[in-house]
Amino acid sequence: MPRSSNATAAIPESRLRLSLERFALIFTQPFQGLQRRINHWIATRTPRVAGPWIVSRRRVYILPTRYGYGYALLLVVMLLGAMNYSNSMAFALTFLLAGLGLIGMHHTHGNLVNVQVRQTRVMPVFAGEYASFTIELANPAQAPRYALSAAWQDDKFSDLMRSAFSVDLAANHSAYLSLTQASVQRGWLSAPRFAVYTEFPLGLFHAWTWVELDMRCLVYPKAAPRGERPFDSAGGHGVRSGPRSGQDDFAGLRNYQRGDASRAIHWKSFPKQLRPMVKQFSETLENELWFDWSGLPVSWEIEKRLSILTRWIIDADAQGRSYGLRLNAQIFAPAQGAAHRHECLQALALFGVRSND
Amino acid sequence: MQHALPPHLLMRLLAVLAIVLAPHGAHLPLWATLLVIAIMIWRSLSVLRRWPPIPRAAKVLLALAAFAGVYASFGRVSGQTAGVVLLVVMAVLKLTELNSRRDLMVLVLLMYFLLITHFLFSQELWTAAYLIFCAVLITGVLIDANHPAAILPLRNSLRLSGRLVAMALPLMVIIFVLFPRIPGPLWGLPSDSGAARTGLSDNMEPGEISSLVESDAVAFRVRFEGKPPANRELYWRGPVFGHFDGHRWDSVLHANAENDTQAKLDGGEVRYEVTLEPQRSHWLFALDLPAAASLPSDAHLDADFELFANGESRERRLYQLESFTQYRLQGEFDDAQRRFYTRLPARSNPRTQALAQQWRAQGLDDQQIIDAALAMFRQQAFFYTLHPPALSRDSVDEFLFDTRKGFCEHYASSFAVLMRAAGIPARIVTGYQGGEKNAVGDYYLVRQSDAHAWTEVWLAPRGWVRIDPTAAVAPQRIERGIGEALENSGDLPAFLDPRRPGYNLRYAFEARWDWINSQWNHWVLGYGPDLQQEFLRRFGIVDWSDMILALTAAVSLVLGGLGIVLLRQFSVPAASDPAQDQWRRLQRRLARVGLTQLAHEGALDFSRRVSIAKPALAASIAQITSLYLQLRYLQTAGTSSNAPSERQLAQAVTALKI
Fold first, then answer.
1. To pair with B286 at 20 to 30 A between CA atoms, which of A120, B413, B583, B642?
2. Cα A165 from Cα A155, distance rounded (Å)
3. How far apart are CA B580 and CA B628, in angstroms?
4. Please, where are the H alpha helices in chain A?
5. Using the beta-carbon criterion (under 8 Å), do A89 and B525 form an inter-chain contact?
6. Which residues are CB-neighbours of A66 under 8 A, at least 6 positions away?
7. Closest CA to B99 of B151, B37, B52
8. pLDDT of A142-187, one tens digit each?
9. Counting one residue from A and one from B, how many pairs have CB atoms under 8 Å apart?
10. DSSP letters along A103-165, please?
11. Which of A68-74's residues contact partners 24+ apart within 8 Å by CB, and which partners?
């Protein structure tokens, strides 16, 4: 019986702790619930669009900055002083500054209205690297705009003094801003919602708008550390690690093609031929590399296997060799060049990822 | 420490700070001025030469030293001047730790506040221009501070700040007029607030008034309702002195503050309005003799008919009065009073006393003695001069019998002593005499240089009678003013000299300038609770709630208008294309019957589809489409040669019967 009484006593205690924590939460973060609601409201108001997104007047939100609150306090002090001294010029200055603050608010608001936000191409990255989403801000109006910045929704708004993160837009001009996001896993990394904001001209108000552009970054698998060598049994010939073979394997010159590695170019012949020639080696002609998914031990984790394949592709590409990839049903015939490299890496990146388009 | 601020920005900030601080130079003690200059020079050099920052301990020491310095100079760290000096020094010390944008913003806000402190010392007309000028400069720095990417060209940031301030000006005017004013002060003023003490003092020694005459400062301005009295009647009554110690005249301390002095006022009343400049004393000035019934609520008359305000006039104040130039003051006189007003120090000025007693011994009555004294001033070699020789202990004796050169206080003082020696009650009245009529604004300007002293003697049925001995020596002084009275004496202050080249032009200019200033004083500086109520009542705004309602409405209206102007500036200009407009009109009309042009559909495809759906329209649609295509794709938009086709297109769209 004592045990059961202990047990019954324990439950209310944990419940009590829970409710106490909730209660404390109300005091420590009273706006969290409110914040959640506001976020939800924002989400319903900002659909994910392909762009260009035109910032409409109704979607510009504006709040005072801490300097804005300081300015308001200053005005109150000045007003009290003017009242105390019955000083007309002090009243005049106070009211001038009050008017200035209000005009500045309109100006800050206007600085953002009708800005066009467009997405640009996003370059793929390897997992663990920072994905860089570059957005284009365009000013279709005749008045110049100054000091526009962008930040992810989750970020605290960065201090405007970080000069790299704000741009000016002359009339009918555009500029680019980059937002970076850490990539964690391979696949598609969608750009989250971000804010375009400004505090220009007076810094007393923070005007912003939420934008969610349908941008995504392809994240290749993280390359495995060097060391694992392709197996000959994988259906092709193994990659020889270490430096390239010497003159022995030299098989002649051929015309340069896009995607050839610069180190393969035969520079000596360049002044005579006036077009680049590429050294061909017997090895690259004969020994096409095949990287095969099924050749890797099944006991290894999928991600590890993908990482190793990624490493091989990177290295083979860097050495200017032809390589092919067999990834279950997907087969990429041996080839060279950036496009081939991208196709192979994309296949690895999206291996097992359900694509939604 | 964050990113260092750009050097250009710091130099701009320093320049603006210097301009904002410059007028305070007059109030700063020498050490503070030097400290301010030293720190500003150090800061600009440290920006240019990239010197390392001052160590923290040194900053703290500097701040403490500044506090100590202010305390040593003023004996406190609060109060108007001490507080301002402390604020200035602290603002400049902030320069030593100006590293981040936050510091910059704090300093900008501080500069706005420094700007307001100027108006504690001066609110003249030029300060309004200075206010706007500085507001533009400070706002320019604020704009620079908020443009982090690169420093804006100075022209751009100043033009933008100028635009912002210009747009804020109408708001300022609206709020200034409509914001409900309450009578101050809220918590009391520091004892050193307001203007420095000027004007007449509480006692009179030889040479005191003549020093005042050197000043061309304005004492007050008077606007008469109706016809102003003649110049010789413009005696502005101020402090009255009944006690003489042989050298100096002092006012009488009355046992009871209640004024039981009887005055019979006669002749028509003169109504007028005085705008008194701040002078840090209780005195108010009234035309001799003010009617007790017309006093402002916060003023009173004492037994000598001196007019006092209940508080010091630290600010410019406006009051209305009624006076009577003919009066009988204190017809009844008791023995104690007679004894008091004939009292002289026992062994002072023996020759004067002897002269008066000699007159009395000759059997002259009171009036004859007065005439004899005035005749003496008139007929003997007495001179009216601003720079009389210095007088020692028995000043009246020396003046009457030796130097014979004096200013109004010498004549008034010696005359009063003569009267008292002859047994006639006499006292000194100081104040102002005359005034300069301003033709532009129809008012009288009374300067400190119009300061004057005269006497009152008590004669049996008539009471206190004003006798001005100066009028006997220099009648022009009373008739035409101080400038003419001293014209040929060679010691006239330059501003009073009519023979100076350009005097007339200057006079005309000064009259206008003074008129503008008086308007400024009245309408802007004097815009307090009373004037506001009076002014707004004309527009049907009678109380606070009306004011706040009108204020809100007016500010929203103007702000809304300015907001629209700004938004238009930032909006995409709509290209005007009449052909496109007409096509849209067609689209709207067709949309009503369910025919909408699809996104992928060109004009031709759409017209074909419409023709199939509505064969009746086929001909008109074909015509419209061909006109539209011609205007859009075969001709250059916006040229005048398009006009006939455009008109045709518009008619065709109108004529379409769907």
1. B413
2. 13
3. 8
4. 2-28, 32-45, 66-85, 88-112, 270-273, 282-286, 302-318, 338-349
5. yes
6. none
7. B52
8. 889 999 998 887 655 444 334 457 889 998 899 999 888 889 889 9
9. 195
10. HHHHHHHHHHTT-EEEE-----EETTSEEEEEEEEE--SSS-EEEEEEEESSSPPPPTT-GGG
11. A68/A101, A68/A203, A68/A204, A68/A205, A68/A206, A70/B105, A70/B106, A70/B109, A71/A97, A71/A101, A71/A204, A71/B109, A72/A101, A74/B109, A74/B112, A74/B113
- For the question of an ipTM over 0.90, the answer is no
**Residues paired with residue B437 on neighbouring β-strands, in sequence order:** B444
Give pTM, 2 decimals.
0.72
Of residues A83, A99, A143, nearest to B172 (C-beta): A99
Min Cα–Cα distance to chain A from B101, Å: 7
pLDDT band at A137 (very low <50, low <70, confident <90, very high): very high
Maximum distance among all Cα pairs of chain A, rounded to whole angstroms: 101
In angstroms, the Cα distances linking B369 to A180, B27, B335, B415 are 105, 53, 21, 11
The helix (H) or strand (E) run that includes residue B411 is helix B408-421
Interchain contact B158–A (C-beta under 8 A): no
Residues 372-391 of B with CB under 8 A from A: none
All residue ranges of chain B with pLDDT < 70 are 1-4, 184, 188-198, 254-260, 480, 484-503, 575-576, 635-640
Read off the amino acid at residue B486: L
The contacts of residue A69 (CB under 8 Å, 6+ apart) are none
| Residue B486: DSSP 8-state | T
> What tokens were used for A172?
């009918």
In DSSP terms, which residues pair with B240 in a beta bridge? B429
Q: How far is B319 from chain A (nearest CA, A)?
A: 17
Q: Which residues of B are catalytic?
A: 408, 452, 468
At B457 the three-state DSSP class reads strand
Which pLDDT belongs to residue A161?
36
Mean pLDDT for all residues in chain A: 80
A146 contact residues in B (CB cutoff 8 A): 147, 152
Up-side HSE of residue B43: CA atoms within 13 Å toward CB?
27
The type of residue at A138 is: A
The two tokens of residue B135 are 């507001």
Distance, in Å, from the CA atom of B421 to the CA atom of B173, rounded to the nearest integer, reads 63
Print the SS3 string covering A33-58.
HHHHHHHHHHHHHCCEECCCEECCHH
Averaging pLDDT over each range in A226-230, A326-330, B484-488, which range is the top one? A326-330
Q: How far is CA B619 from CA A163, B140, B396, B580, B629, in A?
A: 62, 64, 119, 20, 15
Q: Please say whether the beta carbons of A290 and A334 come within 8 A.
A: yes
**Cis amide linkage into residue A52, ω under 30° from 0:** yes
- What pLDDT digit, counting tens, does each position of A26-74 carry? 666 666 677 778 778 877 888 888 878 889 888 899 999 999 999 999 9
- Which among B214, B321, B228 has a CA at the least distance from the CA of B275? B321
